[in-house]
Each structure stands twice: as structure tokens, then as C-alpha cells.
Design a protein that fits this description.
The chain has helices at residues 16-24, 39-91, 104-124, 129-137, 141-175, 180-212, 217-233, 240-270, 276-307, 314-327, 340-346, 350-372, 381-391, 394-435. By secondary structure, the protein is mainly α. The chain is globular.
Length: 436
């Protein structure tokens, strides 16, 4: 026979003095009750999240730097080699000269670099940075708030499809280079790179206005946007896969913010009026922006993991996934280069970022050339290049530019090799621990 459930026993009546004793915990030595057993463990996990998140973001920041330097150094070298192979195959059809023979994969590298050149020369160069700066400065705060929100949303959407568009172009270059779909794939990549570059260009221009505003109203608007993101994310249900997508987005956002702040500093220095005091003030504002970014990421990830009962150990697992992508594990035969898989995983937009960077560096060089005609203007590293340019010292200028390119290439090779070593040690670590 089933046992009837007993109703809980109702506590008896108590005197006012007993109630006061319990409330004041005078007889606390007899209190045997305690909080739930897992509360302390949950609190410990909550406090571990910022440190483990920052370890992942620090490792991923250098992965993004390596991928960015790849597009600046290795990609132009591959483009030059592909052009040489194309010329050799034109001279000797289907034979070439030994290893210098054109292959379908070379077409992909030529198209990649061609997209960078077209977007930089035909899309970004005609846009005046000064006109855009004053247009943004003259807008109402409400319009700017909506504009910043639109830029952030479409930036994430375009990041999600950018590498897929490039992979589709690579597949068509190798499988059906004479098919009409080849034209469609190339057009899609060009349209993607154009719109994403324009969005990032607008993002940098808005950040430039915020960093140079005396009342810092726009800067406060940008910082408040970081904390508004907390409201839109922490109260939703997530699993580990969804959290990984949010983390990769934060990784790319952290790198782009650091790069854009550097580009704005370079441009402001060459425009003049940046003395030591103003540079120190700029660094202070950068610190405020970066600290706000740090705190918003910490709060967001801490509460997402808390509300969804996700362990903080998920972040080292994410780092192992990126390390596997970096070393090519699971991507044998389909990796175009050692950054391909990890860039696709992160949704890192190499080509648009490079186009925007080239546009701002060219604007800085334009001011350097203007100042080089007279005695006025600050003395910076690029002013020497501008002086050689205006004086027609082409051999000296070419040698100096080659030296800068070679130094950048060395930094990229050393950084890439170091990252591969770190990734291998990360992947070998769990295996070694399990064997003990």
C-alpha cells in the first residue's frame, strides 16, 4: 500500500522574546543551518570568469594580430608570385618555367589582392575623412546613437559571411574558373568587402570624433553602448556553442578597437597640434575606453555563465579549439594557410580592416607631404618619407619602404611561429596531464 504523504509540521507558537533571540542570533552557537552546498562553488566560478576570459582574449588578440599581418605581408608576396606565374604561363602556355607555373589557386590570390586594391582606391580614397568628420560632429546625439547601433549590428552580420564568401570564391577558382558562377562569386566578395570597409571606415570616423570632442559626450555614448549590450545578452538562454560565438565576437571587437585607436592617434599626430600634453590626454581617454570595454566584457560573461550554469573552464576549452585551428588539426587538406581556419572560426574580417588601415595611413602621409613643403608642422617618422617623396628621391624612398615591409614581415613570421609553438604546447598539455 502506498504511504500517504505527511504534511509538514507547523511550528508551534513562540513568545516575543524567543522571536527576538532568533532574529538577533543571540543563540547562534546552536544554529546548524547553512546555505546550499554549491553556493560557494558557484561564487568561486563566478569570480574565476574574468581571469580566464582575459587569458583567452589575450591569446586570441595575438592570433588576430598574426592574421592581420598576414594580409599585410604574406598576401602581397603571394599576389606578386601569382602574377609572375601568370606571366610565365602566358609566355610558355601550360608549361611555365619549372616551379613558376600558373595554377588555379593563384587566381584566388590575384583576386583577393585585387579586391583590396579596388576597395582602397575606388571606394575609400574618394571619401574625404575631414568632410566625414565634420558631418558626424554636426549630427544630433540621438542620430549618432542609432548610427553606432546600426554599424555594430551590420559589422557582426558581415563578419559572419565574409570568410564564407571568400571560401566560395576559392572553391570556384579551383573547380570551375570558367563558369558564370565565378563572376557571381567575385562580385559577392567585392560587394561584401565594399560594404564592410565602409562600415568600419564610418566606425573609425565616429570614434575619431568621440576621441577629439572637448565635452566627451559622444565618448560617453559609445561607452554606454558597451553596457547596453549587457542588458541585451545576459538575460537570454545560452549554451556553450552560443557563448563561443559571443566570445569570438568580443575577440574581434577588442582587436579592432585597439587598432582603430592607434590609427586615430597616428592621424591626429600628422594633422598637427598634438603636443606631449595632448598625447598624454589621448592615452588617458584610450585607457577609459579600454577599461570600460574590459568591465563590460567581464560583467557580461560572468552573468551569462552564472545564469546558464556554465563552468569557467569553458574558456580554456575555447582556447584549445582555437589552438587546434591554428595548428590545422581537423582541417588537413582544406587549410589555405595557417590562419584560414582560425580566421573563419573567429569571423575576423582581414580584407576590410586592411583597406581601412591603408586609407588612414595614406591620409597621414598626405598631411606629412603637406607639412614637408614648409618649416611648420611636427617632426615624425613619416615626415622623412614625405620629404623624400617631394624631393623625388625615389630610390631612397623605395629602399626605406622595402625595409619597413621587411621588418613587418619578420615580425609576422616570428609572431606566427611563436603562436604555433604556444598552440602546440596547449594541445599537448592535457595529454601529458592525463598520462600522469
Amino acid at each position: 500500500p502506498s504511504k500517504s504523504l505527511k504534511s509538514p509540521e507547523v511550528p508551534g507558537r513562540q513568545s516575543m522574546m524567543t522571536y527576538i533571540k532568533k532574529e538577533m542570533m543571540i543563540d547562534s552557537s546552536r544554529q546548524e543551518g547553512s546555505a546550499a552546498d554549491d553556493v560557494d562553488a558557484n561564487m568561486e566560478e563566478f569570480l574565476r570568469v574574468p581571469a580566464k576570459l582575459e587569458k583567452l582574449l589575450f591569446f586570441s588578440f595575438w592570433i588576430c594580430t598574426d592574421a592581420f599581418l598576414y594580409a599585410l605581408t604574406i598576401l602581397p608576396i603571394k599576389f606578386l608570385w601569382s602574377c609572375i606565374c601568370l606571366a610565365a604561363s602566358i609566355i610558355r602556355p601550360r608549361k611555365g618555367f619549372g616551379v613558376c607555373s600558373f595554377h588555379r589557386r593563384h587566381l584566388y590570390q590575384i583576386l583577393q589582392m585585387s579586391v583590396v586594391i579596388v576597395v582602397y582606391r575606388k571606394v575609400l580614397m574618394p571619401i574625404s575623412i575631414g568632410v566625414l568628420y565634420h558631418w558626424i560632429r554636426g549630427q544630433a546625439m540621438l542620430k549618432l546613437y542609432v548610427l553606432i547601433a546600426i554599424v555594430e549590428v551590420f559589422d557582426r552580420l558581415l563578419c559572419s559571411i565574409g570568410q564564407d564568401a571568400l571560401d566560395s570564391l576559392y572553391w570556384n577558382c579551383n573547380r570551375r574558373p570558367y563558369h558564370p558562377r565565378m563572376i557571381i562569386s567575385t562580385t559577392v566578395v567585392l560587394i561584401y568587402a565594399t560594404f564592410h570597409s565602409l562600415l568600419l571606415f564610418l566606425h573609425v570616423a565616429t570614434l575619431n570624433v568621440a576621441m577629439n570632442s572637448s565635452d566627451h559626450a559622444l565618448l560617453s555614448l559609445i561607452i554606454s553602448g558597451n553596457f547596453a549590450e549587457i542588458k541585451s545578452t545576459v538575460f537570454k538562454k545560452y549554451n556553450k556553442q552560443n557563448l563561443f560565438k559571443i566570445t569570438t565576437s568580443d575577440i574581434c571587437e577588442r582587436f579592432k578597437l585597439a587598432l582603430f585607436l592607434v590609427l586615430i592617434l597616428i592621424l591626429n599626430c600628422f594633422q598637427g597640434g598634438m603636443n606631449q600634453a595632448k598625447i598624454l590626454q589621448y592615452f588617458y581617454i584610450c585607457g577609459v575606453v579600454l577599461v570600460a570595454e574590459l568591465f563590460s566584457d567581464w560583467i557580461k560573461h560572468s552573468f551569462i555563465t552564472k545564469f546558464n550554469f556554465i563552468k569557467s573552464s569553458v574558456y580554456p576549452d575555447y582556447a584549445l579549439i582555437l589552438a587546434g585551428d591554428l595548428t590545422g588539426i581537423g582541417h588537413e587538406g582544406i587549410n589555405l594557410n595557417h590562419t584560414h581556419a582560425v580566421v573563419k572560426r573567429l569571423g575576423f574580417s582581414q580584407i576590410p580592416i586592411v583597406c581601412v588601415m591603408l586609407r588612414f595611413i595614406s591620409e597621414a602621409m598626405r598631411y606629412a607631404i603637406v607639412f614637408s613643403h614648409g618649416d611648420a608642422g611636427p617632426e615624425y617618422f613619416f615626415n622623412t618619407f614625405a620629404f623624400w617623396y617631394t624631393e623625388g628621391r625615389w630610390a631612397t624612398l623605395a629602399g626605406a619602404m622595402f625595409g619597413v615591409f621587411f621588418l613587418t614581415l619578420v615580425v609576422k613570421v616570428v609572431l606566427g611561429f611563436a603562436l604555433l609553438g604556444v598552440a602546440r604546447r596547449m594541445l599537448e598539455g592535457p595529454a601529458d596531464d592525463s598520462g600522469k
